[in-house]
Design goal:
By secondary structure, the protein is an all-alpha fold. Helix content is 77%, strand content 0%. The radius of gyration is 23 Å and the shape is globular. It is a multi-pass membrane protein.
Length: 516
């Protein structure tokens, strides 16, 4: 199970590093390249709740085995594909397998281990998942530079084959109270998220005011409205809408959204900036990302210690959100072409500390502010919002970068008549991490000035996106801090008793210590 939970996050962080290699090999446009990342994130997020329901209904080992087969097969197809459309589809299928693996795997661990042993197991899960996030970009860079990008997905398939060998030794279990899967809710939710992402990704290509993009965004809104109606009327909805009235619960669920705007958007996108603006190799760019991912392995222990020493969970979350907000703002200040490790270390490490301080703690706190019969739904909603926000925000940030770089290039590209490509083509190339091809079309004497022009515009676009992210993080952080305030004595929140997350933090810290 730990091997599985190591593989899944590497696919999130590593695919972005491999994009420049995939683009040069397949000659794909930027929007098709982006779907290598978006397709996996979309299906991973969208099928979480449905796969959890199926695991309870059909059997957790059965769903886990199905997910492992699907993920392995999709990874093999990704490793041998030569067409970008086949690669995009295979990554979407891999996301479905990942959703089945994550939801059923967590349930298997929870039902297999009890007491202190379960605490140690889930401490190990947190550390291994953090390790996957930390190593994914570096491993993808090394493999892409040495063996080619296909080897990255080939390694996924090979490691998952070991998981398949172990499945027959697992016990089967299912919920005695599981109800039928809410297919109407699942279909409308997945459809809404898909249309929203497609509209965001294609906005820069089709035009934001084009009928196609407007139709997609309107369709996403309509399907979400239908989803709300369906969930209100369904006897066993996949999401209990009453949880939306629980202020502390919603505040805790918004913390991963701040993480997305500050931390997660950098994982697939910042390596491309380093490749273009610094001339780094994919391996070097992936290794640089360790600055923000390695702290995740340590700071969850610090969070547990702070709570044991008298900090309230609200104070720990406030410190975490402050680190994330200040980290992304700091990066906006120092980012420039040719930036070295010295300037990057401060903001990237601060971002890693910010994530690590709430990593694991927020999951335990969420389950403590809802009633016991709502814990499954609460955990599913948290993970859906976490992964769904990642999918949508990464797509939105990528689209914003394309729009902003196009605006910059449009005002100065005519100074380089030797370049025969258009503004949109250049913006797409740069945002996919490829400056080598545009430079190769120019005379040697023109290349330095052209490089400066491109990297300066690319940097301005990045700074604008980072400042916007910092502003959003600041606003959300203030709202979260206010919503986490203790209710007045004698009041309740949405029928769910307010609870102190300190016990969850104590268990998290003690479990990680015992594991170490």
């Amino acid at each position: 199970m730990l091997l599985t939970l190591l593989i899944l996050p590497t696919s999130v962080t590593g695919s972005g590093v491999a994009l420049p290699h995939i683009g040069r090999d397949t000659d794909a446009s930027l929007d098709l390249l982006q779907w290598v990342v978006h397709a996996y994130n979309l299906t991973f997020a969208s099928f979480m709740l449905a796969c959890g329901s199926l695991a309870d209904l059909l059997g957790r080992r059965r769903v886990f085995a199905t997910g492992a087969v699907v993920f392995t097969a999709a990874s093999l197809v990704s490793a041998v594909s030569t067409d970008i459309y086949v690669l995009d589809v295979s990554r979407a299928i891999a996301g479905v397998g990942a959703a089945a693996l994550l939801t059923s795997g967590s349930s298997i661990l929870a039902t297999t281990f009890k007491g202190a042993t379960r605490n140690r197991v889930f401490a190990a899960v947190g550390i291994v998942t953090g390790g996957g996030l930390a190593l994914g970009a570096m491993i993808a860079g090394i493999l892409a530079d040495t063996l080619g990008w296909r080897s990255f997905y080939g390694v996924h398939a090979a490691l998952m084959a070991l998981v398949l060998i172990a499945i027959p030794f697992m016990g089967e279990s299912r919920s005695e109270t599981a109800s039928k899967v809410d297919w109407a809710g699942t279909v409308t939710f997945v459809g809404s998220l898909f249309l929203l992402m497609l509209g965001v990704v294609e906005g820069p290509q089709w035009g934001w005011s084009s009928p196609g993009v407007l139709g997609l965004l309107v369709g996403a809104a309509l399907l979400m409205a239908v989803f709300v109606v369906v969930e209100r009327r369904h006897p066993h909805p996949m999401f209990d809408l009453a949880l939306l009235r629980n202020g502390p619960f919603m505040a805790l669920c918004l913390i991963p959204v701040v993480v997305t705007f500050s931390f997660v958007i950098l994982l697939p996108l910042l390596p491309n900036y380093l490749v273009v603006a610094n001339g780094d190799s994919s391996q070097a760019a992936g290794t640089t990302m360790l600055l923000m991912t390695l702290p995740i392995l340590v700071t969850p222990l610090v969070a547990g210690r702070l709570v044991r020493q008298g900090w309230t969970p609200r104070a720990v979350f406030a410190l975490s959100l402050a680190c994330l907000t200040l980290g992304v703002a700091w990066l906006a200040v120092v980012l420039q072409p040719g930036i070295g490790l010295g300037a990057l270390t401060g903001p990237l490490v601060l971002l890693g500390i910010g994530l690590g301080l709430n990593f694991g703690l927020v999951d335990g706190a969420v389950l403590n502010v809802v009633s016991p019969e709502s814990t499954g739904t609460a955990a599913g909603f948290l993970n859906t919002l976490r992964l769904g926000s990642e999918a949508v925000v990464i797509a939105a940030a990528g689209s914003a970068l394309v729009n902003l770089t196009q605006s910059w290039f449009r005002d100065g590209l005519d100074r380089f008549p030797a370049y025969d490509g258009g503004v949109a083509e250049l913006a797409n190339k740069v945002n996919s991490g490829d400056l080598a091809d545009p430079l190769a079309t120019l005379p040697t004497g023109v290349q330095p000035a052209f490089r400066d022009f491109v990297t300066e515009g690319f940097t301005d676009a990045w700074q604008a996106v980072l400042w916007a992210s910092a502003a959003i993080c600041c606003a959300l952080s203030i709202a979260i801090y206010v919503m986490l305030a203790e209710p007045k004595r004698g009041t309740t929140v949405a029928g769910d008793p307010p609870a102190d997350a300190a016990s969850a933090a104590d268990r998290h810290e003690a479990s990680a210590q015992s594991l170490t």
